[in-house]
Amino acid sequence: MNDQQNAKEVPRRQFVALSGALGAATLLTGAAAMGGGTAAAASGGDAGPTPDSCPTTPPPPGGASPCPPAQLQGLCGRPTDNDPLWHDVQYCTNGIVPPPPQTRPDCLKMTPNYIVLHGKPETTHNYLLLPTCRITGIECPFLETGGVANYWHEAWENARSGGDVPVQYPNIGLGINSQSARRYDQLHIHMAGVRASTQRRLQELESQGRMATSPSQWANPANQAAVTGSAGDRVYRILRLPNLRDNLFNLLYTNVVRPNSLNMADQTMLVIPKITAAGFANAFYVLNSDMSIHDGTRTCDYLLVYS
After folding, report:
1. CATH number for the domain harbouring residue 62
2. Could you tell me which residues come within 8 angstroms of residue 104 by beta carbon, excluding any fewer than 6 positions away?
3. What is the distance of C-alpha 86 from the center of its chain?
4. What is the tens place of the pLDDT at every residue in 75-130?
5. Can you tell me the distance from the alpha carbon of 225 to that of 208, in angstroms, rounded to the nearest whole number?
6. How many beta carbons lie within 10 A of that of residue 83, not counting itself?
7. What are phi and psi of 129, to 5 degrees?
8. Which of 100, 110, 225, 280 has minimal CB crowding within 10 Å?
9. Is position 258 within any domain?
10. Quick check: 24 and 278 in contact, CB under 8 A?
């Protein structure tokens, strides 16, 4: 599913103020933010459609999964929003049939924190991971907190060889688009293929020492480099990590966005596992770009292979 233009922007001052306002006490208010699975359209009434008989996710162990608190609904989305991917989430988690003409999705994997669906076009190397929380996208400040699920790690665990929804392609890429470059407003991480030339280019840059090896170096211009994709060369900030244990949204905001007075809504990010002839090499290349970089981009679609 290639994301397309959707011209909505978030004022930076509002974004920063709400990010700072998030306290630890608000992190467990997710059930209220989810709204119990109502799929009414933005102009609809109080009652949603009758749940279907499809299988639904079990309740999270120990109570509700942490989701954005109610005060962030202006930035992170409301449970009554009329977004196709949000309808898909509600169908897979609560059995609520999407409004016509939208069709029912194939719920490939369902957990308390996320679901996995086919992307479009449907191939064996085009999937989407979506939170069960109502989260519009990368601009939601809740993503930077300690209470959020590690969606990037979960995407890799599913997409890797041997995962529950493996991406059947020699090289794998995970990606998220900026707010203005996406088509739908429910957070979704693309699980897709990447070209062998992209993998070779990243390994070449690594051998030349042209990428950050700690998050604090990520914004250094010395760690920016061009990578060729479907629309020619685009320049990315490149970070090499040994694992995906840390919150990548927080690493991006703390080390790149905030110190450079950028807007989180404008960022695109990709994770490309390092793969050699021997297989996965226990490292990940994390790429970020925006239009503040010369020849930068707001979309992950140039490097991912969907069809």
Report:
1. 3.30.428.30
2. 52, 54, 91, 97, 98
3. 14
4. 999 999 999 999 999 999 999 999 999 999 999 999 999 999 999 999 999 999 99
5. 11
6. 17
7. -110, 125
8. 100
9. yes
10. no
Q: pLDDT tens across 222-277, in order?
A: 999 999 999 999 999 999 999 999 999 999 999 999 999 999 999 999 999 999 99
Whose tokens are 């959707």? That residue is 6
DSSP track, the chain: -----------HHHHHHHHHH--GGGTT-HHHHHGGG----TT--S--PPB-SS--PPPPTTSPPP---GGGHHHH--TT---HHHHHHHHHHH-BPPPTTPPPPP--EE-SSEEEEE-SS--TTEEEEEESS---STT-GGGGSTTS--HHHHHHHHHSTTSSS---SSSEEEEE--GGG-S-SS--EEEEEE-HHHHHHHHHHHHTT-SBSSGGGTT-GGGEEEEEEBTEEEEEEEEEES-S-S-HHHHHIIIIITTTT--GGG-EEEEEEEEETTEEEEEEEEEEE-TTSTT--S-STTTEE--
Look up residue 11 and give its amino acid.
P
Q: Share the mean pLDDT of the chain.
A: 85
Q: What is the DSSP string of 67-124?
A: ---GGGHHHH--TT---HHHHHHHHHHH-BPPPTTPPPPP--EE-SSEEEEE-SS--T
Is residue 1, in this structure, part of any structural domain at all?
no
Alpha carbon separation from 127 to 195, 236, 247, 252 (Å, rounded):
17, 23, 21, 24
Domain that holds residue 203: 12-305
pLDDT reported for residue 29: 34
Specify the number of domains making up the chain.
1
**223 and 237 Cβ atoms separated by less than 8 Å:** yes
Residue 4 inside a domain? The answer is: no
Q: Which two tokens stand for residue 282?
A: 């226990």
25 within a domain of the structure (yes/no)? yes
In angstroms, the CA 132 to CA 49 distance is 18
